[in-house]
Specification:
The protein is of the alpha/beta class. It has two domains: 1-69, 2,3-Dihydroxybiphenyl 1,2-Dioxygenase, domain 1 (Roll); 71-157, 2,3-Dihydroxybiphenyl 1,2-Dioxygenase, domain 1. The chain has helices at residues 14-24, 84-96, 120-128, 130-140, 148-156, and strands spanning 6-10, 29-35, 48-55, 58-64, 76-81, 100-101, 106-108, 114-119. The strands form two sheets. A four-stranded mixed sheet has the order 1-4-3-2. The protein has a four-stranded mixed sheet with strand order 5-8-7-6. The protein is elongated, with a radius of gyration of 18 Å.
Amino acid sequence: MGKNTICVWYDKDAEAAARFYAETFPESSVGEIHRAPGDFPSGKEGDVLIVEFTVAGIPCIGLNGGPHVKHSEAFSFQIATDNQEETDRYWNAIVGNGGEESECGWCKDKWGISWQITPRILTGALAAGGEKAKRAFDAMMTMRKIDIATIDAAQRG
């Protein structure tokens, strides 16, 4: 485990979440699985307590800490995509596996973790500033899943 690792709290499904991420995103994998050495408030000795995993190259641990902590959009994974096919694939994997759509390229997986599926053309248009950025931003504000053709047309005017 690295010096700085993202810890994501789950009720009880850290291993299932880690396996889903590993199957869905490149440069993702499931590492060591640590079982509780004794009973704890949300589980018993021998239950999965911590799962080491990597999502798109970022080291994480999943902690099965119980139902007391709820997720919010204050934490999200942002996945940059290169084309509509990639955007659709990730979006559909998350939403189609019990997740839910949100606004402006955001969605939540079935464990309540927020994801931003963000085409690079959108971030590039916003970084350009000026009217190009404003048109791309205004187009994005009408979307759930980002439509690259619409963003491209908006930034061109």
